[in-house]
Amino acid sequence: MEDKSLSTAMEIFSILMSGEEIQKNRPGTSELYQTYYANAEVYELVTKMLARLNMSVYEYNETLFVTAGEGNKVFGYTNDDLKRQLGLRKNRELYLVYFIMYQALLFFYTDSATYQVKEYLRQEELLQLVSQAADAIVRENEVFNQTTKEMEGFRSVALLWHELPLMVNEDRDRNKASRGSRMGYVKLTMNFLQGEKLFLATEDRYYPTDRFRALAEGYFEDDKGRIYQLLQAAEKRTGDNA
To answer: pTM of the entire structure?
Structure first.
């Protein structure tokens, strides 16, 4: 192994682990981007170092991003971490946030090969998407008879969503996100995703960033859209029984 390859791999690793991005056309990282793909030894070293820390590297629009792998308690979030950060008390409240995140993801992607050509997502559109998905689960009696943990989790989330009012007075303040309404949970979720540099917000519109697109495509490549498959199965049975 050449010292230069190790030094370059460590530089790439350090930049990515600091939360920064390596772009092909940005001064200071352009050469690193080229080397990452042109030098097999550098590529392998970076990949191995990230894998040892349960991290994954994704690319989108000639930019490299890194994210924590599933269950990574050091560089990722645990459920308890997220509950504290979002001001939530119960697991099913957190699962509702996850559910809203997933509906935002599906608005733009259904798998890694089917990017939806949409520039932004509105608050009202996201509210409707979550309601439609929750309705499909609540109406689907067959889903409730399944024993999978995923479907039990979906059932709990759907019932919580239906218990919430559409809006409360606090929701009228654009900068506040209550935990007592559907709109409040949508705003709470999207505020968090903005903080993670996955969306940019203008008025009631949410614009996905390149980081979001990289992680979205990587998710479907790595996990094969498991949650999407379950939700689609529920919606299909609901449609067949309508």
So the answer is: 0.77
